[in-house]
Amino acid sequence: MGILNVTPDSFSDGGNFYDPHTALAHANRLLEDGAHILDIGAESTRPGFEAVSAEDEWARLAPVLNPLLQQGTLVSVDTTKASVARASLKQGVQIINDIWGLQSDSEMPFVIADSAAHVVVMHNALKIDAERDIIADWKRFFDVSLNLAEKAGIAKERLILDPGIGFAKTPAQNIQAIRSLKILKSEYQLPILLGLSRKSMFGHFLGRSVKERLAGTLAANIAGVHEGADILRVHDIREHADAFKMYNLINEGL
Fold first, then answer.
1. Is residue 13 part of a domain?
2. Which cofactors, if any, are listed as required (predicted)?
3. Which of 140, 233, 238, 245 is catalytic?
4. What is the distance of C-alpha 35 from the center of its chain?
């Protein structure tokens, strides 16, 4: 899953693809490099982000969505707003990526249910708590989210879980979360999306700036796949495609 942020303030590439023409050029580059899905976000979710209105979010998304959908691209929209999700789904978007796991906007589960789309249900919290038991909190949070999905009528096969790496977690908790993906997968028997590309834990453990975190990201994603991740949300598609081609050759043979 290739990341496309049409925002002025995302932590890694804010402002780089804010212009629709630049965004579309980058989207097609990601596809050429091997992306199977494009995850498009129009509101930053970095720590300390400034919220935008649904109208502004949609104004950023619409010029990019339509051309990509017309060419048959599998598109995910990263939003917590039911109205933005509804407009995206009407255009033909196939996945909604909700960083609050259907718990932020009470209309979101019903918007998803009224479509044929999949939804990424991500674990989140309002603040970091170094004493939080991540596995127990996953269970508490995802039980609520999946109950909301069931009540709204979202079929289980349309659900994808995201452990929420980098969201209200200490660096140590992020590592624990990656190491515990098999537990999460065993508990819910659902696909797992892992989104850790260039995140701050690499700065913490490696002392690397945002632009120097590719090696750490590759290593963490390889470990994540070994632990059960099914979808990788990344900035650097070509490098991941190469890494996993070799990984699969070694594991599966020529």
1. no
2. Mg(2+)
3. 233
4. 14
> Structure pTM?
0.93
pLDDT tens digits, one per residue of 32-65: 999 999 999 998 766 655 778 999 999 999 999 9
Which 3 state secondary structure label does DSSP give 3? Answer: strand
Residue 32: CB atoms within 10 Å: 10
Q: In the chain, which stretches have pLDDT less than 70?
A: 9-18, 45-49, 254
d(C-alpha 244, C-alpha 24), whole Å: 26
Q: Beta partners for 78?
A: 41, 97
Active site residue 233: yes
- 245 classed as catalytic: no
Question: Which CATH number covers residue 191?
Answer: 3.20.20.20
- Contact yes or no for 137/170 (Cβ under 8 A): no
In a domain, 171, yes or no: yes
**pLDDT for residue 18:** 64
Domains contained in the chain, number: 1
- Token pair of 38 as six digits: 């494009």
Token output for 111: 């918007």
Residue 147 lies in domain: 73-252
> Is 131 exposed, middle or buried, given 0-12, 13-18 or 19+ CB atoms closer than 10 A?
exposed
**The tokens 């609050």 sit on which residue?**
100
41 domain-assigned: no
Residue type, 142: F
Catalytic residue of the set 169, 199, 211, 213:
199
